[in-house]
Every structure is written in structure tokens, then in C-alpha cells.
Design a protein that fits this description.
homodimer; 125 residues; alpha+beta; Arc Repressor Mutant, subunit A; three-stranded antiparallel β-sheet; elongated; disordered N terminus
């Protein structure tokens, strides 16, 4: 990881919590640093339960949801909280406490970046 | 997995090797079956080395590459082959043997499906 630390791209991602990453897949081979950032985002969606929870938040009224809103995916509430935390760590969700509950919201810039990586690739293929 | 087997979506994906999946993230919560298919694709891109290899194939001249073309990511050739196999199993690459080498090509329909899932989400957010 020592060589990755030197990349400004990674520092920005670490500072902001979101990643302004990466080039379209068809443009050029990704660098090690870019792949590190992008793979972290894809990996966060690489679990079926996590993906269902993420889509539950994304499709919820107003674009946000609390644990109380999305407990119908067949796992316990601690498990739901665990996965939401993982999605937040990956920069895909933001959260805000209001009263008793923590509300989660999709981070649009990160999703847009992931979509751009893939959409360009498929358009050019 | 027994309840997943009953979904036509999964059967189609298994038959064709590519997944005509899934609804945009903002549309409605994904079902268990949809999330199973989509998570498999995202997980395949959730490894930095695999993602670099995938972008190397996607950005290579003519949209295809053999192991001999993309050996500069700092891992051994057997490791490259292993990751290419994983990407193929996930339906993201197709392969064809021509002479000595196996040539890999990006599967555009799968990438388009992944892009659609994410792009719609970010546009609506």
C-alpha cells in the first residue's frame, strides 16, 4: 500500500469519503491506485444482502431511509446496521442522526462515477 | 438457494451466461434473486487486480486481448489467467481460442446492465 499512498487520487478519496474516480474502462488500463479506489466501491455492492439494502435506501421515498424502514430483507437488525456501515465506509451512503434514528442517503457522486466507468465501456463495445 | 432457483431471471442468466438483470436501484428494492445475480457481477469487479485486468482487456485495441497482451499488472501469468477465468465465470468476459492463445473480450450486455443499474440511480438522486 505504500506506493498507493503517494497518489493524490487516493488522498482525495480519503479526505472526502467519496472517490472522484476513475477513467472509463475502455479508455486505458487503470493504474494500481485507480483500481484500488474503484474496486472498493464495486466490492461494497458485491454482496446480495448489501445490494438489497442499498437498493432499499436508493428507492425509498425521498431518497433516504432509516434501519426502521428497511428491515424486510430477512436478516436481523444488527446485520442490517453492519451492512449499512460497510456501505458508508465505502463512500456509497451518507448518514445523519435525527432523533432516535440514523437516516441513510445514497451518495450520488460515487454512483455517478461507477456508472460512468461502466456505461462508457458498454457504449464503446 | 432453493427459492432462487424458481426465478426465471436466474434460469435465463444460467442458460445464456449473461444476466439480463436488474431494475435501476432507485426504482424499487431488489428481490433476493435479482440481488444474487447483480452482486455476482459487482463482486467480480471488486478486486483491484481483477479490475485492472478487466480494464486492460476493455481498453485493448479491437476490444480484445490475450494473456500475452496484458501481463504488465505486476502479477504472475497463472494469476492473470485465474482472474480472467473468474471474470468469465461472472459473465463479464467471453473467450475464444485462436492458435496458441485464448482471446478475451468484454461482454457488452452485462456491462450495460450494470451501468443501467447505477446510472439511473445517480440521475434520479
Amino acid at each position: 500500500m505504500s506506493n498507493v499512498k503517494a497518489l493524490p487520487l487516493i488522498e482525495t478519496a480519503e479526505q472526502s469519503g467519496v472517490a472522484p474516480c476513475c477513467p472509463p474502462l475502455t479508455e486505458r488500463p487503470m493504474t494500481a491506485g485507480e483500481a484500488e479506489v474503484a474496486a472498493r466501491m464495486f466490492k461494497a455492492l458485491g454482496d446480495p444482502v448489501r445490494l438489497r439494502l442499498f437498493s432499499a435506501v436508493a428507492s425509498h421515498e425521498g431518497g433516504e431511509a432509516c434501519v426502521c424502514d428497511i428491515s424486510d430483507v430477512g436478516v436481523s437488525q444488527p446485520t442490517v446496521s453492519h451492512h449499512l456501515k460497510k456501505l458508508k465506509e465505502a463512500g456509497l451512503l451518507t448518514s445523519e442522526r435525527r432523533g432516535t434514528w440514523v437516516y441513510y442517503r445514497v451518495e450520488p457522486s460515487v454512483l455517478a462515477a461507477m456508472g460512468r466507468i461502466l456505461a462508457s465501456a458498454s457504449a464503446a463495445a
